[in-house]
Records
---
Amino acid sequence: MWKTSEIGHSQVEPATKQLLPPCQIKCPINEDIQRTNVLISLLPDTIEAARDGIIQIGEYLYERNPFFNICGYICGLCELECNYKNEGGAIRRRLLKRFLSDTYTPYLNEKPEVNIVKDRENVAVIGGGPSGLMAAFNLTRQGYRVTIFEASQRLGGALWLVPEYRLPRKVLQTTVENLVRIMGIDVRYNTKFGEGRTTVNRLISDGFKAVFIAKGTPNARQLTFGKDVVEGQDLSGVMYGLDFLYEVSHGNIPPDYFKNKKIIVIGAGNVAFDSARTARRLGGEVSIVCLEREDKEHRDGIPADEDEIRGAWEEGIKIYASRGVRKISGKNDEFEGITCPLCTQVYCDTGFNPEFDTNDEINLTGDVVIVTIGQAPDLELLKKENLLDHRGRLAVDPHTLQSQINPSVFIGGDVRRVGFMIEAMEEGIKAAESINKYLNDEDLKVASKDYEAFGLPERPYYKIATEVLWIPPEQRLHFQMFEKGLTLKEAITEAKRCATCGPCVSCKACISIGFEKSLYAVQVDKERCSGCGACVYACNYESARLVMKDGRLISDTDMFRCKSCGMCVAACASNARKMVDDQTAEKIKKAYAELK
Amino acid sequence: MNKPKIVCFSCKFSWGYLADESKLAAEISNWIPIICAGKIDAEYLVDAFLHGADGVLILGCPEGDCHYQDGTIETKKRLALLRQALAVYNIEPERIRLVLARDPEGKDIPGHIEEMAKAIGRLGKIKTAKA
């Protein structure tokens, strides 16, 4: 089994301009995607032999992203930008991480606590979701003493709202519980922000030098039509998606709860689809009503992930697209039905601005309606804590996440802007950086990152992506995972597909496993170079190029793009190219001298 | 003739990367692991014969697996030309062999060398004087 060593550890440094593979740019926390793909592709062929390697790869990922195993179930943003997308399908990065998770998540229980001297300031983190945990993780690593104040009795925040058929409870629980154990982070459960001593002012007077507010936005948005709140939302049988998913995840809703019931879900985001598919799994006959159009490519298209839409459709959920809800009707305080006018436009150039044709209306009846049209901030609490500006909006610098009212307060995650898990995590990282700078009296200003993506290197063959297998719809109306994970063999094959578009400096997998000593620089001897261009032809990365110098064409190497593969050196007929410090020629010479 | 001397280049991305390299090197004579088959300069190959090798075996990655996209294709092109050039010096094309496969443990490498040695043995010594 290969062993990786520290020397080749890759990192993304914030630079004025940096070339990276597009997947790594797309990932809000710039995970080393190419690097882990290469490492996975070199794993042994049996799971027993591969275990150490998988854990080693997991340890690399964990350093930057202690939620990588969860990303393996529910993220996959990087795949949207994979260069391979149009050549047989994006590299199935998410499933590759899920594959690592199969071995790594159980290992978390035995992963030793890190040994960090925590002799720096006390920092309070409000909220134990992805954003708060990420900030706590990064602050702790720098020696800060972090206390997380969590409103509920468990960590994980909104991740608990992801249905179990997409993210197994055990994976989530193992991850969050071990994270605070491994890092030695203090957690106070059942501690609500704004109550008791958990207010900004009291925390500061209790000795916390900075407070990061990442409390999420757990309140559901009420249904409105035009400027008015739709009446009837207090009827029995009207519920909100967030509350519904919360109750399901707490095991408060028995199986078959919706048996022989007609359920209407209003909304078109992932949470709406999660609610609908969950209701379907509880035995209901489910329809979705949404303003958006079925055509996902359209500006007014359904925003939920394609997999969610496909899953819902396969599971027999009917979608009424381009329909608003003007009226909720009921009888004897019981929900009865909704009136849905045609929605002719959702967005205009200035943003959300739905328009309806009330001459074209349909009536839908049902037993339960689940409103899932987004989340609303708890403005009253935020106002009480003096976090809003005079217009009633969060007063926070979007780059540094520092409050514009109280410099020792930082705000991020869903409470600032509802988004993907990984975006909340990104804000946690940002907040930790800002807090560190703030407590060191440094300028908080963030250098803007300017990345340039690599294109797909030309390959003689492109391979088709490994097929993702879903349990057939009639067999998956339960809460077990419906998507099959990759086997070791599939994972190796899939990882090998990666065209490794990125530059070597952002990867260095070959150095970590001892294939190479360093990334050799290619030197061109200008006297020898004839400017023939054979090297340009041999190079697959647009690194070798011809430039005009002193009135003649000579070849040159763009070191940002160079992979030190040596193909240009081998192709050069006049020995003008060589790799600095590369010992290959000497090794060969030595072998020839001892020829047996 | 005595046992033919075979120089064996192997690409690190497909051959022997799970094995202990020094252990494997002790078992296999004249074995040169290299980062990519595409890096094997024509000069290295000619040099091998100049130093008394009877054959050169190149173990590359399966088609389409090259970490550097088309190292195997580059090698193939190079070998096609080189074999013609060597033929002028009476060095038979069979004296350079390319095998594209994957063998992480490297356990097949001795077998491949053995097999090639047998074939080269039938050809006998190179019939050209040292240049």
---
Amino acid sequence: MRQLWFLALRNLSRNMRRNLATGSAIALGFAGILLLGGYVNRISNYLRVYTVYVMHTGHLALFAQDGFEKFQYKPLKYSLSHDAQLAIEKALREEAQVDFYERQMSGAGLIGNGRISVPFYAKGYEPLIDQRVQSHPEVQKWVSKGGYFAKGQGLWNYPEDLGALALSKGLAFTLGKKLVHDEGGDANVQLISGTWQGSLNAIDAEVVGHFNTGFRETDNSAIYIDYKRLQQLYDTESVGRYSIWVKDIFQTNKVAARLTEKLKAAGVSVEVIAWDEERLSPYYTGTMQFLHSLVTFIGVVLATVISFSVLNSTTMTVVERLQEIGMYRSIGFRRGQVSRMFVNESFWLAMASLAVGAVLGYAAISSINAAKIIYHPPGVPDGLQLKLVASTPFLFISGAIILTLTLLTTYFAVSRTMRMRVADLLGGTRR
Amino acid sequence: MIFKILLFAGLIFSNAHAAAPAPSAEELLKSSDRGRGATVSLEGINWIADIVTKENETTNQAVYLIKCRGNDALAEVTSPPRQKGEIIIFNDRILWFYKPGLKKPVSISARQKLMGQAANGDIASTQYFRDYEGKILGEEVVDGTKTYKLELVARAKNVTYDKIRYWISKSQKLGVKAEYLTVSGDVFKSATFKYGNTIKISGTAYPFVSEMVIRDANNANNETTIHYKNPSEASHPTSIFNVNNLVR
């Protein structure tokens, strides 16, 4: 057995040029797959962290029953009342898997600067939870800019009675609020809207930061404010939803089921939605579906190229070595042993090529990251750095797939020859 | 001879009747605007607007004291107590909202909902003659009242409605019914008017609106009623309509 491995290794040096060509195809293909994997790994983690943390979606979003669909146009009926909040927070405190949670509000209205008023859409968060989210290790690792404030500081740096608010950059430009509170300009604005009861109401606020929404459509209207200020504007004690972050992401659905059951028993009917459901995170799920189809397509193309390259090379090798195979058979080697020897040759070749491919792939990833290339995907005003993050599990899984493909292709190429008679093999002709 | 005289008199009468010109759309709008508080006095007028709204099985109420002078108006909440002191100023077609404690007044739209079905522009900015181009479409009977049916198209973007179908009584020349239309021509709410009040301007009494009922065209249960009370002539200084004076 060991002899077969040794013989296979020695045979590799017999047609160095062809083996180099085959090995190069495997190595370059593997390096390409690693680059692609690094890109997908980075983008999928960036999107996951951006969705779960930076956008405050949480791993779970808890709404009043039907509140996800109907809260925006019937907030009074489909919000979570003060009593419901007490029951929900009790259930959340009792659930061991819950890491932390946040009360949220959202709504629309007009924002004015004393001269003009323009429409806004506000998201109300808890500033201290925002601080926790922005400094979360996952955000630090995957979202390179460390959050979305283009200017100014987070709301948690200001006293509650200041009415701190962050404006999307386009809205700040429209309102002429280029200077934020800390820069000493007139950062005062007013928000006006109908209350949930139907009367008109307005509140003062102070611009302390600018942010990019990541989408041009919302960059002219989005604001971010303490949810309590929105409660004042809409004259309510209710909240629109809870975002919940769990300790173990794989427990997300179980936590959702337990919370729903527990609250149902307490007489509070709620709807709990996981972060990766399309209706809650359409941008994330849509982008991931596109990425997966892209990767599948490119992966199939690369696997086909590698397979045909190995098949071609092995077939030529087998044809050249018919007499040698006949000789092995005539001195007592069984068909399986000869086939295994060829498969072993491919194993050595593939392993060496994969090692070279891994080195090439990692070197290319480092070079691309060092080049700090900025690209502009749709809806990202300031662009993103083309950053690739190699994944060790992906390295081993894709390497194992390429190795398996190489070995199967080799076996397929030699299996027909192994069925030939010894005399024909020794004659060196293949029919 | 008697027959000739009767025939001659009949001809004169019929000619006189036929010659009475139909009022123009402008005349009808001017007259109907007067019944809803527009430009009847140079010095100004007051009235109270008690707004009751029924929507989604809940009822809300707010009372505004309205002060008008020319193209300016000021609406101040007197009830409920938590809204007391809130002010809407109408400077021509530009509206401002202010509440005590706010650092600056906020510019608002006449189309924005004030309460229930009532838009901001419904409570005081009611100068259809100034804001709309009118055309008489014909004559109709509305709840037993003979009316002219008019189509009004907004002269500017910042008025309360894009299009209005407006029925003005032939006898009193007051608006009795209105349908408010979207740009595409769909009715989204309608209103009926009653004129149980009178207002004396320089000794002359004019009929004045006492009730406006506004209904959601898509949900008849959603209804807002504005009760107009105590209309009277008053003298208002122009300074009370100056938005810059609000925060001093």
---
Amino acid sequence: MISLTSYAFVSMILFSIGVIGVIARRNIFVIYMSIELMLNGVNLFLVTFARYHFNMDPQIVTVMVISIAAAEAAIFLSVIILLYRSKKSLDTDIFTTLTQGEKA
Amino acid sequence: MMDTSLLVWIILAPLIGAILNGGIYFYHIKKKPVPELVFSIIGTGTPLIAFLITLSLFLNMVEDGITYKQVLFTWLNIDSLNIAMGFLGDNLAIFMSMFVTFVGWLIHIYAIGYMTGDNGFGKFFAYFNLFLASMLILVLADNPVILFIGWEGVGVCSYLLIAFYYNNKDNVIAGNKAFIANRVGDFGFILGIITLFFALGEVDLNFTSLEANISNASTELLLLSGFLLFVGAMGKSAQIPLYVWLPDAMAGPTPISALIHAATMVTAGVYMVARFHFLYSGIEEIGTFIAYIGAFSALFAAIIATRQTDIKKILAYSTMSQLGYMFIAVGLGFYSSGLFHVFTHAFFKAMLFMGAGGMIIALHHEQNIFKMAQHRAQLPIIKITFFIGVLAISGVPFLSGFFSKDAILAAAFQEGQYLIWIIAMFTAFLTAFYMFRMFFILFIAPNKHLENYVYTSKTITFPLVILAMGAIGAGYLNLPTVLGGEHLVDTWLAMLNSNEIHMSHLTEWILMILSVAVASAGIFVAYKKYSQFDVFKPEEETGLIGNKFYVDELYDRIFVQFSKKVSVYIDKTIDDKIIDGFIMGTCSQFISFGKKVASLQNANVRFYATFMLVGMSCVFVYLYISLGL
């Protein structure tokens, strides 16, 4: 039997990898994938505790997260295409049009 | 004391005249032109009314020996300070307002002829009447504060009139100079009144009760007060060191010069000292100081006058010199002698100015005596009256100036102030010299180009003739006993005097002969030098004396430039650097802080994400700790 703590650890590691990916990487695709990773880390957490407590509510939330993530993926990918078309690049540091201050 | 409702009308008449003239003048320039006759009638009628009222009061006073008093209303009532809008018609005030209104009226008549055709005719008469009204407020005031209203009114009107032709910048500067120099004196005057009020404490602030309570005050405060009040007189009456405005005041039209010099304004200082006779007779140190200032002013002005070439400036310096004599008299406590000189001086100085004005008009506004002599016009009446005026001011026997000046010289001699006496004698010599220098150049020095231009405006010659009679006859009102006279003016003003002339007839004769000799010497020197003077080689205003001892330049250097430097320092350093630096520094601190905050909005997605993470972590940690979740 794999302990509850192990599940929690895995989900937290997944989430942390996602956070670091969002913060550290510049490629929009990688950032997108890291966000998915964070979502799935949370999903795993929810599912784990649903099973542990024999409660179906978190399961429902998880299914909703997956379905919303699918819808979000469609929008996200189309936004990435538009961004690529406008600047011919996927580097997030280039998109600074809305900046304030002296960097503009 | 007798109450009367007439007293205030002496002041109200010219004041109403000023308001009417001013109103009609507005109508004249805004709607449609009004003939000059209207302004003339209002302008000359109201001083005449004032004169007639004064005369009737005077005649009553002679008959019944009463003093008039009129209190209109309480003007200020603060705790123990009670200032009434009151007027006092005692011997001194009525004596003064008699000739102020009379000579003022004649100058008004003269002004009709002088100003005719001028665009500002109505405005001129409005100012003129206001000037007279202010002077009468000053003369008839019942307390020092009301006196100060008149004092300031006279200052304002002189400013308005000196800068009458305001299109010319020099005139405006001269007006400003007169006003500012007077403000310096006024400052002293205000402080003087305040000091007097402090010294006397809780008494009604009017001359009668001040006089009654003067002995309760401490001498130190009275000394201070007397000195400060005299600072005001220095400004108004153009004495050293505040005299600089008087020659420049010649920028105004000539009737103004006549009015300022003869009847109003400059005599205010002498009058004020006489009005406060109860104060000054108790503090003889200040009295002597006043006499010395007067003596030096007289000498100083006379020396400058010998080298001036502008006819009006010569007359201006002669006024300053004669005012010096008056201050010698009032300083030494001979108030009636001083006021008698004010009285005679009003006649001959008004006449001299009017004569000069007539010549200036006839010669198309030429004021340089040598150039005037080059184009000599035929002006018989002006020539005769001018000659009388010159004789009178020079102290030639049997004319008014002789008697009044002689009384002052005798007073200085009797008091043992020999330095003042010698200065005054020497000034008398200089006076005769510079007045006859002007006369010889203007009328006697040979000149082939005689122009047959005859100037005959009745309004100009009529006052001249009347004043000429005054200049001859005024002296006989105060004929000394030694000549069989009765001292009428001295008797009339006897209650002022703290000193009387009492010397042996022999001394009096010797002094009289001495002063005649001095005057003759002055005339003789002028005759030798100028009766055959070539007017086509005019003298220039050069050298130390010609440049008026560089006093104007000195004042400019010390006061004007100094205050300019202070202003520039405050503007450029204190304001720009310190105050602006502080305000702008605060401002730029906010701006740079704002820029720092704005740099957080750098559009870097990863940066935002980090902050979001940190922020959310903080929120969760807070929730965990504080809510115990």
---
Amino acid sequence: MKRRIFLKGSLATGALGVAASAGLIIPRASLAAWAKEAFEAKDVNSALSGLFGSSDLTASDKIRIKAPDIAENGAVVPISVSTDLANVESITIVAEKNQNPLTASFALGATALPDISTRIKMGKTSSVIAIVKSGGKLYSTGKEVKVTIGGCGG
Amino acid sequence: MSSIKLRASAKDGVTTVKSLISHPMETGTRKDAKTGEKIPAHFIQEVVCTHNGKTVLTASWGAAISKNPYLSFSFKGGATGDKVGLSWVDNKGEKDSGETTVN
């Protein structure tokens, strides 16, 4: 059984290595590996510092978050983020009061449009913050989502 | 059977991709109702989406993405018959990939 896990592990890293050398993975520091520290951070600022090296946000009205005002089930909260900002490098979703606030970060390739939809888990009523990296600067906007049943268990 | 459901459709020069992945997305904080033991974390960490082999979107996920994750995005270009691919890797090193053609 151990051998199996080992094989799987080595296969996975092997494949990643091949992908990286073939240029399939965008060679950006934040993408070189899964940002463990940022995802395990317990507060928003350290999560952002871990991900971007900065937690300096500029509020922007050009970012739109589509999320329910009240989420009956915190285990499945649909979130859409889109923006009119130009040269968008990445879109990041943070649920402020989750145990680990950083939820997802999407790095956009040259042709990708800044419009992403996914579903997230929320432990309790909290602000959902969308952070857009554009031209090296971080822009953000937030939206309060009320959660009636938490989705993080425990 | 693949864990990935993938659809891509092109309209007015923009291709919209919708995907559903079957995955437990365990946070590592939930407890087993019977034994009271913690269920180990098991979640997708990285998703890479490609158009004709070129990466269009790389997603890094935490455990707070919902079970059986849904992801939708769009990109410029793309025409009927183009290939759109999606692959994921989770924290245990498990992975899967899927491909579809744009319609």
